[in-house]
Each structure stands twice: as structure tokens, then as C-alpha cells.
Design a protein that fits this description.
Helices cover about 60% and strands about 15% of the residues. It has two helices and two strands; from the N terminus they run H-H-E-E. Strands 1-2 form a two-stranded antiparallel sheet.
Length: about 80
């Protein structure tokens, strides 16, 4: 095996290892994040859910004076 072939083999191994590492790091950081089929649909769902969450939060007197923050379709936080 020539030096060039060995060098190329090492480069391929390094790229594969880096790619695997980055995939695992992304899984740990973001979970199993799936890309949405339609970004517009995702934004519409987010807006609809935000409105629903705000309606529910308005029913609670103690939560009316906080900042409402929706992080996803299924999660909202109130910061007081």
C-alpha cells in the first residue's frame, strides 16, 4: 500500500469518525429532531397553539401578570 493510499484511508476514517461524533452530539443536544415537512405548517401550528395556551393561562388570575413564552407546540412557560 502506497503512502498516498494510506493517507487517503486515514482521511476517510477521520471524516467518518467526525461525522459519527457530530451525529451523536446533535442527538444529545437536540434529541431526535425531525425536520418538518412544511416550515409554514409548523409556524401556523406554533401560532395556533400559542393562542390556545394564552386562552388557558388567562383563566388563572395568578398567571396574568407574567410573560408568556411558548417553546413548542406542547410547552409554554410563564415568567413572573
Amino acid at each position: 500500500m502506497s503512502f498516498e493510499q494510506q493517507l487517503q484511508e486515514k482521511r476517510e476514517q477521520r471524516l467518518k469518525a467526525n461525522g459519527d461524533f457530530l451525529k451523536q452530539l446533535n442527538k444529545l443536544t437536540f434529541g431526535d429532531f425531525k425536520k418538518h415537512e412544511s416550515p409554514n405548517r409548523r409556524l401556523i401550528e406554533q401560532k395556533t397553539e400559542t393562542v390556545k395556551h394564552k386562552k388557558v393561562l388567562k383563566r388563572h388570575d395568578s398567571l396574568k401578570k407574567g410573560i408568556h413564552y411558548t417553546v413548542g407546540v406542547d410547552k409554554s412557560y410563564v415568567i413572573q
